[in-house]
Structure formats: C-alpha cells, structure tokens
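Quick question: what would this complex look like in 3D?
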Amino acid sequence: MTAFFALLAFDIRLSFRRGADTMVVVGFFVLTVVLFPFAIGNDTALLARIAPGLVWVTALLAAMLALDRLFLADFEDGSLDQLLVSEMPLELTVLAKAAAHWVTTGLPLIVAAPVLALVLNMDRAGLAHLALSLALGTPVLTLIGAIGAALTLGARRGGVLISLLVLPLYIPVLIFGVGVVTAAIDGIDASARIMALGGLLLGALALAPLAAAAALRQAAR
Amino acid sequence: MIHFLANPARFMRIGARVLPWCWAVAALGMGAGLWFALVSSPADYQQGDSVRIMYIHVPSAWMALAVYSLIALVSAMALVWKHPLGYLIGRAAAPLGTGFTVICLVTGALWGQTSWGTWWVWDARLTSVLILFFLYLGYMALASAFDDPDRGNRAAALLAIVGFVNIPIIKFSVDWWSTLHQPASVLRSGGPAIHPSMLTPLVLMAVGFAAYFLALLVLRVRAEIAGRKVAALMMASAMGGAGSNPARRERI
C-alpha cells in the first residue's frame, strides 16, 4: 500500500510541476463550451435547455484529451518495465496511475463545470447534481480510458485511435451522467440514476484495472 | 474440439472439406428463404409488403451480434491458450461482422422510412447497433495499428473482450434512455410471437446467412494461412534455403 500511495503522490507531483496537462484539459473544456453560444446564438432559453448535455459532452471530450499521456511517458522511457517487475501488482499500479490522472485532469473539470453551466444559464437546481454526476462519472471515464491508453501503446496514431476505441464505451456514463442533471432540473427523483452511475464506477473500479494491466503486459512484451 | 481445430494445418484440411457444404447450405437456405419471403409469405396487415425487409434485416442483426460474440470468444481462447489461429479467425470475422451490421443499419433505415416515416430515430436498439458498428471499427483499427502484427492481434483481442463485457451495459443504458423499436418477438420466453408463415422464411434466411458467413470465414482464414506460408517460404528462400526445415513451414 505504501508503494501505491508513493506512486500516486509521485505522479500527481510530476503532473503539477509540469502543469501542462491540467491547463490543456481545462482550457479545452472552457474554450469549447464558450464556442457553442457563438455557433448557436445567444438564445438564452435554448442554451439553458441544452446546457447539461453540452457541459457533459465537452467534459467527456476534455477528459479524453490527455488520456494518451497516461502510460506513454513511462512506456517510452522504460519506467513501465520497472513497474512491471516491481512487487506491487500491476493492477494496483494501473489504479494508482489512473487515480493520479483523475486528480490532475478530472477534478479540475468538476470545479470548472458548474461555473460554465452558470455561464450557459443552466437552471440552478441542477448545479449540485452536475458536480455530483461529474464526480461519479469522470473516474469511470479515466478508468475506461486507461484500458484504451494501455491498448494503444506503441500504435501508429495512438491518440486518434484512443477516441475511436473509448468513445463507444463512454456512452453509458454519458447517458446516466446527463440523466442525473436533467432529473434534478425537472424535479424528478435522481437517486436511481445516481445509483446507476455509482454502479458503473464500482464496476469500472473492479474490472478496468484488470483489463488495463493485461493490456500493459501485452504492450511491454 | 477447440484444441483439435487450433492446428492450422488441420484447419486447412477440415476447412477445405467443410467449405462446399457451407456454400450449399447458404445457397439452399437463402434461396428457399427468399422464395418464402418474397412469394409465399403474406404481407403484413399494417405494414404491407415492406415487412419483407425483415427477412434481411433481422438475420443480419442476429449475425452482427453473433459474429461479435464469436470474435470475443476466439479472442479469449487465443489469449488463454495462445492459439494464434484464434487471432486469425477474429481478424477474418471482423469485416464480415461489420458488413452484417451495415446491412442491418441500411435495411433498418429503409424499413423505418416506410413504416415510421423517418430514416433514423434515436431509438435504443438502433443506437446500440450503431455502437456495435463503432466497436467493430475500433477492433479493426486497433488490429492494424501496430508495426508488429502480433501486438495488434493481442491488443485487438483484449479490446474485443472489453467490448463484449460492455455490450450488455451499453444495451441496458440505451434501452433505459429511450425506445421505439419493437421488443424481441422471436427469441423470447413464452414462444415466438410471430406467425409460422413469417417464421419459416426468417429461420431459413438466418440459417442461410450463418452458412454464408461460415463459408466466407473459412475462405478468409484459409487465404490468410496460405498467405503467411507463402511469405514464410519466400523469406526462407531469400535467406538461402533455410526453409528446408519442414517444421518451420507449418508455422503461421
């Protein structure tokens, strides 16, 4: 467990000192959301209505943006081989790296999303639920993305390939994530959708590290 | 059975023997099925003759799902028992499955235009077949994305298994999200809710489709094995007769 937290802290520190990933992800998120009023026009009612879906889709794309960084640096400089032969199970290594990735890219999205939702004039009743749905949903995106990142290590055009692999698998998260927000706005009980989203998170926590670790072993062979 | 067939040389021999039968069953099934579908089955009391699209649409939908399941199955076997033939079958089956998925989507759009009045609706079943199409695309893209074909094989096999785990999740989430398409009416508890006059051509077409797929699959795998043998022999002769070792020739 010590090794797990050491790797987690190391990756977070590395990412914050470099700083680029977080900036790119949040910058992409904010700029893309800001593009929509220009394209759709400043029809406040329309923007308010599409805001939950719009913020969620953009957050999903932003979360995908930095995925190829997840294992690539370690793969290229050989640290991955060290991690493979270390005593810690590779599944835990994957979990630590995914958690660090989520802290540096997913967490900032959760902070930025309510602000953007306000800018789009979204109904305030959904703000808390937007943050909650992203808090439950973005870790799933990172975990599924870890599988994609591990599978495409060393591939030609890896970054583009990840999106093709991962986006179809993201659809349930998107459906339930937006469902939580729209339920809150429409005044329906959102607990069933929150639980479904939580279920996806638990399932991904259990299964994604196994798949990603298997993919890493294939990649390093 | 699995381990017996996993030997490429044996697969070549048995495949050659099975192939004509596959073609025969495919021709018979589709021929008889088309006759029943176009001539001898009644038009629907609501949809008229457009219901005949079903005899292509439903079997191709079944095949699209069945082929993906087959790819996941052979991928798992290839990863577990290190049968390289599993990768070959998976890669050979993927374009065929994509073809069935496209046929299903296109015939579905035509049918939707006549009976719902629209080419496409964001309905649960349509959407999940569309997602299946993207999963196929991802599988094929990943399989061919590496300079080292073995690495592509293994990565794509893992992806096929991950996708297979996800298909039920995607299916249920999408079902929950919205639905217009009719529920299953053939494979359901309590027996098929479809008249025998329509069930007969449907089953015949399904058998024909399956046999047609099998024939193409055997053909493609045999071609791939033969291609690798040729490549290995050419490599060996280029290296200066090192290919005279017969044990090497059977390697794929």
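Answer marked as accepted. Residues 196-238 of chain B form the longest helix (43 residues).
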